[in-house]
Amino acid sequence: APATGPVGTLLTERPPVAATSGPMIAIDGVSKWYGDFQVLTNCTTSVTKGEVVVVCGPSGSGKSTLIKCVNALEPFQKGQITVDGTQIANKKTNLPKLRSRVGMVFQHFELFPHLSITDNLSLAQRKVLGRSKDEAQAKGLALLERVGLKAHAHKFPGQLSGGQQQRVAIARALAMNPIVMLFDEPTSALDPEMVGEVLDVMVELAREGMTMMVVTHEMGFARKVANRVIFMDKGEIVEDAQKEEFFGSPRSERAQTFLSRIL
Ligand code: ADP
Ligand code: MG
User: Fold this and answer.
1) ABC transporter domain spans which residues (predicted)?
2) Angle at CA 238, nearest 5°, toward 99 and 90?
3) Ligand 1 within 6 A of CB of 36
4) What is the DSSP secondary structure assignment for residue 177, as one 8-state letter?
5) Is the pTM of this model over 0.95?
6) What gap in Å lies between CA 252 and CA 63, rounded to an integer?
């Protein structure tokens, strides 16, 4: 879907890192070990521009590790990952630059507790993108408004609820004009009554055409906006299917068992 809403408009301001017609994220035969323990085994998948891919699977199956590899927060020993055509394991790749284009939202919001919401939103824009204070603040405020938190700009993270903090974390990631957004269980640390307000922001982003890779067990979200669902178990991608196919008739027994427990 083309970017239409105000967030979408903001997102398309910067030109892509490398203009390619290939997938936005390509994960090709990735294996990773922690010492002797193999955490990822020959993982291969891709995310096309504008696609929303949900990653699910039991705890310890390697979902967080895989998503961290995409953002080069974790090294891997075999295979290749490219983001918008740029190989992340290539020594010549400017990782800080690449990372600045890949928005990441974690389970724990990881806002800077000693900085106001405004400053949380401005810091990386100024340090990494070199935006002026005024420009960064204006951009931050516009995004805060989009996530319904403009009135809280002057506050500190500790004065906001978990759901509000997570919406600030999403706004902070969007302020960098990412070409792709990665989410790692963004709602699993929230009180149940706050899950909806965070998912709403994510649904809106998806509708505006953002490319997203989302680790979540919120199957309602997956049913609503995912294009594809990836199911992982013991470090392997066991299932990688269109949403309808995944929910309708998962091929593997492991995915069937997982779905029957969670739905
Ligand atoms: P998930 O996100 O699906 O719960 P993770 O990617 O966090 O899974 O972890 C996958 C496996 O790797 C787990 O068995 C976990 O204990 C192990 N693991 C994760 N991080 C490390 C680490 N830094 N060192 C060693 N083992 C790790
Ligand atoms: Mg995890």
Assistant:
1) 25-259
2) 30
3) no
4) -
5) no
6) 18
Q: Which amino acid is at 208?
A: E
Using CA atoms, how far apart are residues 15 and 23, in angstroms rounded to an integer?
16
The type of residue at 60 is: G
Q: What is the ipTM of this complex?
A: 0.98
Mutate to test the pocket of ligand 1, among 37, 39, 232 (most ligand atoms within 8 A of CB): 39
8 A C-beta contact, residue 143 and residue 199: no
Ligand 1, atom 1: closest residue by C-alpha? 60
Length of the chain: 263
Q: How far apart are CA 112 and CA 89, in angstroms?
A: 29
**Which residues on neighbouring strands pair with residue 105, listed in sequence order?**
183
Running along the chain, 263 residues long, what does each successive block of 10 average in pLDDT?
Answer: 41 47 91 97 96 96 97 95 93 89 91 97 94 97 96 97 96 96 96 94 94 96 95 97 91 90 78
Burial degree of 96 (CB within 10 A; 0-12, 13-18, 19+): exposed
